[in-house]
Amino acid sequence: MKIFLDTAAIDDIRTAARWGVLDGVTTNPSLFAKVGGSYDEVLKEICAITPGPVSAEVVAQDVEGMLREGRHFAALADNIVVKVPMSENGLEAISRLAGEGVKTNCTLIFSANQGLLAAKAGASLLSPFVGRLDDINESGMTVIRELATIVRIHELRSEVLVASIRHPRHVTEAALAGAHIATVPLKVLRQMVRHPLTDSGTLQFRRDWAAAQTANDRSSVAEPAAIGAGVRS
Ligand code: G3P
Hints:
alpha/beta, 8-stranded parallel β-barrel, binds SN-glycerol-3-phosphate
């Protein structure tokens, strides 16, 4: 399964890229609002350091506005994917951008049917929000399983990108559900790396190694003395 970073923060992206686990980045107006500056400049910098697709989200509500913003983002870099929220106008914009060869990511998906429609409109990526469904006592992972199964059974060309991920278990369950991509905040990526037994095991190995070195040092100090004693006697 591919791992994307869900952020507009350049330092976070550089960190995940250094670990060799980064396949792409997703941004949105809320994530961009946390970093500020020019969205175009931030996007260009992200695209330059990301080994994969970078999603940039339109905010217009009308089709012509979405197309204008989408074409503008697509011209910024080759790895830009235009993020379009699910709506009737959104489906039309996705279909027309797909017709122009512009890759799109349909976002704010909360049901398998919304995902199915976005795939049929030509969206390259489908972004169901698992955390926000869980927040309202619905099962976000049920929607992921349903959509991933529909895409697989009907051989739809879109990829399921699980978004609004809140904890590492969401990533495991998304992978088991057959999702193609998980987009995570750096905090969750760091949690995925950690395990208390890894920490304690690493500590024990280091302690044992240090003890072995000390024992060796002691025996190497003792040896010349022993050899000396042997010569004298
Ligand atoms: O990609 C969508 C994501 O940023 C939303 O996350 O945690 O606000 O539901 P959250």
